[in-house]
């Protein structure tokens, strides 16, 4: 049985002192559940202090991006090995904000995912369609392309270690959320694509998260769907009480 995974993506929020303040509030109220894993993805500058604060806890630490080369003349970049040394266990790649604002491609997502797997870290590969693509009936086509290119060349065994996050672009930071049934429809499609790429047994192992204005009010209904294995939470992960509520959801 797949274990739920709830990740807080802090984006460009919370420096070191704010991160400490958040975790000092969150850790005491976080109720660990045996069927749910919880992680946070702070900005790069807060990773080290968060690693210190989370030491000895069950809360996972991850990054919001990485580069695919181990080291070299790549000013401003961070490698998977550097993230692992800091105590990270996962990293988000292909987030729609990276794709839209910084021109990251499916091929780049593929390289990042492969580098993370090589460093024994978990890639959280984001996929999702824009509002225009959804309204034109292209949602499945877009998500299929992103999965095929993002996982190209990755063996079925390694695909089983990848986490997929479905984030409809039109629902990120807008307050709009796909209904539970709309989200489930795409998650089911994603699992079928993974089955084709890695086999039925692998598709049953891969966790598929939903992201896009997830909050403490809608999390339980979304995570109650058959193929939704957790959530990638944005704004609500910046409020300790709300994130603790999402992490401790009851379906």
How would you explain this protein's 3D organization?
There is one protein chain. With 251 residues, this protein is of the alpha/beta class. The chain has 12 helices and 8 strands. It has an 8-stranded parallel beta barrel with strand order 1-2-3-4-5-6-7-8, surrounded by 6 helices. Helix 1 (16-29) packs parallel to helix 2. The longest helix has 19 residues, at 180-198. 43% of the residues are buried.
Outline of the structure:
By secondary structure, this protein is α/β, with parallel strands linked by helices. It has helices at about 15-30, 45-55, 80-85, 95-100, 105-120, 130-135, 140-150, 155-160, 180-200, 200-205, 220-225, 240-245; strands at about 5-10, 35-40, 60-65, 90-95, 120-125, 165, 205-210, 230-235. It is globular, with a radius of gyration of 17 Å.
- CATH-defined superfamily: Aldolase class I
Q: What CATH architecture do you see? A: Alpha-Beta Barrel
Structural class: alpha/beta
Helix content: 40-55%
- What integer is the average pLDDT? 95
| CATH topology description | TIM Barrel
Order of helices and strands: EHEHEHEHHEHHHEHHEHEH
CATH class value: Alpha Beta
Work out the radius of gyration. Answer: 17 Å
* Overall strand count: 8
Unreliable segments of 5+ consecutive residues: none
Keywords:
single chain; 251 residues; TIM Barrel; 8-stranded parallel β-barrel; 8 strands
Secondary-structure topology with pairs:
Blueprint: E1 4-9, H1 16-29, E2 36-41, H2 47-54, E3 60-63, H3 80-86, E4 90-93, H4 96-102, H5 106-118, E5 122-127, H6 131-135, H7 139-150, H8 156-159, E6 163-166, H9 180-198, H10 200-205, E7 207-211, H11 219-223, E8 230-233, H12 240-247
Parallel strand pairs: 1-2, 1-8, 2-3, 3-4, 4-5, 5-6, 6-7, 7-8
Helix pairs in contact: 1-2, 1-12, 5-7, 7-9
């Amino acid at each position: 049985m797949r274990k739920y995974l709830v990740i807080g993506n802090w984006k460009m929020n919370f420096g070191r002192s704010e991160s400490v303040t958040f975790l000092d509030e969150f850790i005491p109220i976080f109720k660990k559940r045996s069927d749910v894993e919880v992680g946070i993805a702070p900005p790069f500058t807060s990773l080290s202090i968060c690693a210190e604060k989370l030491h000895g806890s069950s809360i996972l630490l991850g990054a919001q991006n990485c580069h695919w080369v181990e080291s070299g003349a790549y000013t401003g970049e961070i490698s998977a090995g550097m993230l692992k040394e800091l105590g990270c266990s996962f990293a988000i790649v292909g987030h729609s904000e990276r794709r839209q604002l910084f021109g990251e491609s499916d091929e780049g997502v593929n390289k990042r995912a492969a580098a993370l797997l090589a460093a024994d870290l978990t890639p959280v590969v984001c996929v999702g369609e824009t509002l225009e693509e959804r309204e034109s009936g292209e949602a499945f086509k877009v998500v299929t392309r992103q999965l095929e290119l993002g996982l190209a060349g990755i063996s079925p065994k390694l695909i089983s270690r990848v986490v997929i996050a479905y984030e409809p672009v039109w629902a990120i930071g807008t307050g709009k959320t796909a209904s539970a049934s709309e989200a489930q429809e795409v998650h089911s499609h994603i699992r079928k694509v993974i089955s084709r790429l890695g086999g039925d047994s692998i598709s049953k192992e891969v966790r598929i998260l939903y992201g896009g204005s997830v909050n403490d009010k809608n999390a339980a209904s979304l995570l109650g769907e058959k193929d939704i294995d957790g959530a990638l939470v944005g704004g609500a992960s910046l409020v300790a009480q709300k994130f603790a509520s999402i992490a401790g959801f009851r379906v």
